Amino acid sequence: MEYTTLLLDMDGTFLDFGAAERSAFFRAMDNNGYEADEGTYKLYSRINHGLWEAFERGEIDKQTLLFTRFGRLFESMGVEGDGAAFEKEYQLLLGEGHELMEDAWEVLEYLYKKYDLYVVTNGVEATQRSRLKISGIERFMKDIFVSEAVGYQKPQIEFFDYCFAHIDGFEKEKAMIIGDSLTSDIQGGNNAGVACCWFNPSGKERSLELRIDKEIKSLKELLQFL
Q1: Taking the chain, what is the end-to-end CA distance rounded to the nearest angstrom?
Q2: 17-21, 123-127, 168-172: range with highest mean pLDDT
Q3: What is the pTM assigned to this prediction?
Q4: 145 contacts 166 by C-beta, under 8 angstroms
Q5: What CATH number does the domain located at 18-94 have?
Q6: Are 169 and 148 in contact (CB under 8 A)?
Q7: Domain map of the chain by residue range?
Q8: 9 noted as active-site residue
Q9: pLDDT at 61 over 90
């Protein structure tokens, strides 16, 4: 199949969200006088991951996710804190995180000369756009679609319907989504009826029965078939 349009997930695929998240978390905790270690961060990660999964299933909305996670963390830690205010500071710090995944820049420089590239990402609009700008990635993109602005999130079909409606001359059969999340990117690609490339650097097992057209462990593998 000859593709013309690539729908690119960012966090965990081209942007190293783990590094950005970790830095923002510890900086915000330190700024507010909370003691935090690896155990604290793992606790936050479990709470956050569970809320994101509920969000992707449509069980909670974005505001509930964002303004619940730190309140739950503080409760679990047995400390008092304003989770909503902490979230706002955390988002500002997260917006400064622009670390790239290995080979991301080289691969994007290659892809944008051959394909129309679009960001398809869940997250907070201001935070994601800040990271894409600071990292320089936005220069490669024809457009950027963030769930908060779209009004729906991956893997919902409505998210992709919105994206497709805003891409001039879009042809579904010539599009591929590339991302690291089975529940968000690959499930979303299946729902939307586009080809799917799973970025799986850690060699995770397929936990869901999904159509995966390509599976890669490094971004450079994209250059072998694109």
Answers
A1: 10
A2: 168-172
A3: 0.85
A4: yes
A5: 1.10.150.240
A6: no
A7: 5-16+100-224, 18-94
A8: yes
A9: no
> Residues 9, 11, 180, 185: which is the catalytic one?
9
Q: How far apart (Å, rounded) are the C-alpha atoms in residues 75 and 215?
A: 40
Average pLDDT, stretch 125-149? 95
User: Where does 5-16+100-224 sit in CATH, by number?
Assistant: 3.40.50.1000
- Averaged pLDDT, 79-104: 93
pLDDT, tens digit, 9 for 90 and up, residues 163-193 = 999 999 999 999 999 999 999 999 999 999 9
* CA–centroid distance for 130 within its chain: 14
